[in-house]
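Worked Example 4.2. Consider the chain below.
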Amino acid sequence: MIPASLAEFYYAAEWVIRLAMLAVVPLRRTPAAARGWLLLIFFLPVPGLLLFLAIGSPRFPQWRAARFARLRSFFADVSRRLRAAEEVDPTSEPESARLAERLGLLPAVGGNRVELLDRYDEAIDRLVADIDAARAHVRILVYIFADDRVGRRVVEALARACHVLVDPVGSRPWIDGTLRLLREAGVETRAALPFRLLRGRTRRDMRNHRKLFVIDGTIAYTGSQNLVARDFRTGIVNDELVARVSGPAVAALSSVFLADWYLETERLLDREPAIPPPAGEAVLQALPSGADYPLLGFQTLLTWQVGQAREEIVIVTPYLIPDEGLLDALGTAALRGVEVRIIVSAVVDQWLVNLAQRSYYDELLSRGIRLYRYRRHLLHAKAVRIDDDFAVIGSSNFDIRSFQLNEEVSLLLLDHDSIAALARIEQGYLRESTPLSLEEWRRRGLAVRLAENIARLISPLL
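Applying the procedure from the previous section yields the following structure tokens:
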């Protein structure tokens, strides 16, 4: 039996925690995140406080911020050399490109060739062939690097100076085998955002979610695809979207890898990444985002760009948990007569996230936004197209985790041909999708609605 004095102390401590956290939690957090934390702490003060101390602050420690500050001159030099090579007047760029540069520190650049690859095995085949043909170096930054048949193919092709950053949480089921394979192949490997209790890296849920592959500084791949078999989850097959880039924009993408390598090692592999010669007519821009970069880069750009839409918005995402600003921007666009279509996956791999996502469907449909559920496989692609003058593909989902916690990289497509290529892929997704009506959605059961609403309450903590 618990002594009365101890029970009274615990009761008083719970109320001290509740009242104190009313002042602490709202600081520098979105209203949704603050509500989620306060709700948890109100019902479970002590466990809630412990969880808040473990993962409640979406910021990196001071030592990492200091390292990133030292990289600003590096990004400024890359930006200057890209502009000098292209000789473009920055004032002639679209406003979206200027905003993206302020957020991600890298400019838009022309003279590129971009191929959008939406067939999983073809993308792996192209990547392995390019790696196998490398003459100088290969640099890989990836969330999941498995030691399965796909990962082994990539490792076997690594025959030049190679540097690999792999996220240890995303690759957790395979990490020991993957690191062993890479090191046996002579590849210099580092963990991205490793857990370091003594250096203030206590948030295991802040991850490097980027997928970036740079070969010889002349070819780069980025998008949604990891280095893992397409069917690595039992009963689930992934469909992905990847951009293969050649031309000056490769230097910008390369600088993102170089910066991440420096943040983990304090070693800059290349202070002046070479700028490849023109390879086509595409205008592209790299937008890195995450806790290292100003504001919420991808979310900020996306919300602003939605507000500029005139005719059409198409969003492709496996995980859709919008914040209030993006939700309002999409609803306002629909009210202005913009056709807003969102393609999500009918195949589910994360049930709690999916329940939270489904809680937004009624609100989206009620505002005139059209929802489509892709039936064929798990649609893991991440893309957005707004009218015929702005598009993005990359690693970022449309959820709070990608907006606030994960390190992501997006590729902006700013020319009509590249955007039209994405539009054709979107049409293929729509042909394999089933539209969802508001009447049909409202026929789901009460128990399902309750589960969705509970998941939504905790979605800022996911």
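The CA atoms of residues 123 and 136 lie 22 Å apart. The chain has a mean pLDDT of 91. Compare this with Example 4.1 before moving on.
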